[in-house]
Amino acid sequence: MIESLIYFSPYLIMLIAILILMFGEHEEDEHYRCFRFSRIMLLTSLVLAVIFYNKPPILGFSIGNRYTLIFECMLYSGSLILLYLSRKWFAAMHRPAYLFCGSLFITLLFGNLLVASIDLRLSSACAIMLMFNNYLMLRYSDVQKESNTRTRIYFALILGGTFLLLGATLYIWQMCGMTDYEKIRLYLEFEKDDTHTYITIIMLILPFLFLLGLAPLHFGQTETLSKTFLPVFTYFMLLPTIAVWGGFIHLNISVLPPIAAYLQTFYVSIALLSVGVGAIGACGGQNVYKIFSYFAVYGSGIILLTLRRFTPNALNSGFVYMFVYLLAILGICSCLFGLKKKGEYLFMLTEFEGAAQKRPYITAMMLVFMFSLLGMPPLSGFLGLFSALNYQALHHHFYQLIYLLIMMLVVGYAFLQIMRTLYFIEHKTAFDRADSGIYTAIFLNAILMLIIVLKPQFLAENIYQMLESMFQ
């Protein structure tokens, strides 16, 4: 009992932080104290998670290995960076920070459990909590009145996803008598040709695709995010994405191999649709948050298209693209934190006109991160995109390869419009002075991307070790 409690201590610390932040008494002017408390609790939980990385936090319901450790470290790192970038803005704008910090801890707690889960009941509960926490973050971000309808649509999608998850879990529990991943996999070995089983698995998968923002389930997120403030937008771009990809990949590797051939057509269809919708959607608006939200749909589509049947080679290519993609997204969001006017972050493309004249270093790095997202050589994004495209070529998926290249050109057009606004339109906006911490975050991000370019084996070796732990 004591041993299990020790192994659960990283999660226990997050639970204590949630209770204090969500239900404690708070003063309006204690922004810095709230962020300081959150950083201390995060770092303490991170240290304990690393120490006990190979010990399951919930015996019989979860595992611990290099795979879970890497995703947990990504979640912790993303949360710490987000707290670092956001802290001064909350104080300057006099916004209560405890709800924002509490929601980060909720995502960390249930995201880490989702990645480590080997029981369908725990996975479903974590996915449901992540969906409702996303809604909490959207409501907290003071969505403008005209977007309330979109928020209600997002809530309706959450209820639909909850219904699908609960229905699929109960059906599988009734059929198998168990919800353990290994037991479900054995059941699917004998029932893989059953139509009801296939429909149940699709019901189970759809909420994960919704959380990842894949088309056609993307619109609730892409439309609503265009009205949020930057810390919440950055949260959506990073933390739920990391957690859900970790849990979704684990589910496919541990449970769904018997029906991988049946699911491949479904995954490819969703992936191709997402790539097309994301690329075209990124060209159709003036809201910068909306443009990058659609690019997230495009990027998730490439990841899913590469993973497809979740073989070791596919996982290797997909993970390379995923890590480089998340790093570039973090870099872009860090640059956006350095561009604001009268204390408010900018989000309309016209507000960025001539930004290169006043913030040359930030805009230059923003272009670097954008073209890294696009996969332009010699940037680190080329390593990820080349890995994804190479997988398509090696497996003779030439039509899909051509389609990806065309969509890459479409996304490139959207990015050229941003570059034109930043560099070739006369300066109109008086930007606030950027905090020195923004430059530090951008610099460190650039250094990490440079290391990946110069030492690609650094990334490859860690991915190999992670895959090895997954297939043990």
Describe the structure concisely for a colleague.
The chain has about 475 residues and is mainly α.
Write the layout of secondary structure elements.
Layout: H1 2-7, H2 9-23, H3 31-51, H4 66-93, H5 98-116, H6 120-140, H7 148-176, H8 181-191, H9 195-211, H10 219-225, H11 230-254, H12 260-282, H13 288-307, H14 312-337, E1 340-341, E2 344-345, H15 355-358, H16 360-374, H17 380-394, H18 398-423, H19 436-454, H20 456-470
Helix pairs in contact: 2-3, 2-5, 3-4, 3-5, 4-5, 4-11, 5-6, 5-11, 6-7, 6-9, 6-11, 7-9, 7-10, 10-13, 11-14, 12-13, 12-18, 13-14, 14-16, 14-17, 14-19, 14-20, 16-17, 16-18, 19-20
Strand proportion:
under 5%
Rg, alpha carbons? 21 Å
Cα(first) to Cα(last) distance is 27 Å
Main beta sheet strand tally, sense and closure: 2 strands, antiparallel
List unreliable stretches of 5+ residues: none
Helix content: over 70%
Tally of helical segments? 20
What's the total number of strands?
Answer: 2
The structure class reads mainly alpha
> Globular, elongated, flat, extended or rod-shaped: what is the shape?
globular
What is the arithmetic mean of pLDDT? 84
- SSE pattern: HHHHHHHHHHHHHHEEHHHHHH
Could you give the order of strands across the largest sheet?
1-2
